[in-house]
Amino acid sequence: MKKLTLTILTSLILLSFNVVNAYLLQARTLSDFVCMPDQLKTPKQKGLEIIGELSGFDPCNKTVEFKVPELLPKPGLIISVHGGGGKKDAAKINAEFYEIGYATLIFDAYDMNSISLRRIGNAYRQMMLLKTSYAAYKWVLRRKEIDNKNIYFYGISNGASAVLNIAGMVSSTHVRGIISEAPNPIGIGYPNSIKIPIQIIFGDLDDLSAPIGKKRWEISAPCYLNRRFNFAPIGFSEACRKGKNTIKMPTTLEWVKMVSKEYNSSIDIEYIKDMAHGGFLGPVNIQTRNFGRGPIGWSMGGTPAARDKMMSIIRGFLRK
After folding, report:
1. Secondary structure E strands in 126-235
2. Full 3-state SS string of 7-66
3. Is the pLDDT of residue 24 over 70?
4. Across residues 51-60, what is the average pLDDT?
5. 270 burial class (0-12, 13-18, 19+ CB within 10 angstroms)?
6. pLDDT of residue 241 exceeding 60
């Protein structure tokens, strides 16, 4: 009888916990914002380049999703920055951030700029992502629904490169960490100094954009593929950019060793088994692509165990 009573009591407690937890995480998807149409510009695409003034952030853009957990007073916020595929690149992991109790902000920077998804040079993708994401950060600092001293950025692929630059731009008073999944030095480069702790994550199978036999973290290229973006912090693209063909840019791992780390910031790197590029993009798909200069790696996705491992690493980083 005592065992039965204990079992029933335990079941009731677990049921009560699950119901309360589910209620706490019911979304308040906020939408009644003061619109900022003056932030939206209309650059044009010419070849692989984006020409013209780039957009900031308009909270009324149709791609914006700002979700805050119910009843949790002033939760922390994670701003998710997508990659070359647009907002969908970060959508699934963004939902995971909400499930663990964070407010979330996600948007499509290309849509903000009225640029359609097509082939665009890395540098110009990263420029749009950086400009809009930084403007989104400035906007959320004024939102009373969140704890603006507990903000994180997450970025995937080109977004991962953008958030590494953000680590050299934002205030440590407000931003506690940067999560960068699979960054690539080809584009606008990385900053010379950072102010915010960074967690870099690679899948051990990630060879996206890498020469055959190499991995994502080994990517380098001639400097002519980089562009200096004046909005970004000073970085290695200052000396390694278009017109400078005789030297190569540093790999991500080389940059980690050379970057100046201010305000007790740090960089940790984790490699996840059975994961390629974008652990939350789908199942593992090992493949190559050829864009006219020979085959390169193009493997994507991750196993459920790999996604669990990534979220475990991220939760540990958020607790620091």
Report:
1. 151-156, 175-181, 193-194, 198-203
2. HHHHHHHHHHHHHHHHHHCCEEEECCCCCCHHHCCCCEEECCEEECCCCCCCCCCCCCEE
3. no
4. 98
5. middle
6. yes
All residues at 6 or more sequence positions from 68 whose CB lies less than 8 Å from its CB, including other chains: 27, 28, 30, 75, 103, 145, 146
Residue 3 has phi, psi (to 5 degrees) of -65, -40
CA nearest 205: which of 256, 110, 150, 278?
278
% of the chain with per-residue pLDDT over 90: 84
Q: Where do runs of H (alpha helix) occur along the chain?
A: 2-24, 88-99, 109-112, 122-140, 158-166, 252-258, 304-319
Which among 151, 217, 165 is positioned nearest to 193, based on CA atoms? 165
How does strand 288-290 pair with strand 267-272?
unpaired
Beta carbons within 8 Å of 161's beta carbon, 6+ residues apart: 122, 126, 155, 180, 183, 184, 185, 187, 188, 190
Task: Find the radius of gyration of the CA atoms of the chain.
Answer: 21
Sequence-distant (6+) residues with CB within 8 A of 254 are 220
All domains of the chain, ordered by start, with CATH? 25-274+307-319 (3.40.50.1820)
Query: Pairing between strand 77-81 and 151-156?
Result: parallel
Q: What is this structure's pTM?
A: 0.90
The residue whose two tokens read 């740090």 is 266
Whole-number average pLDDT of the chain: 91
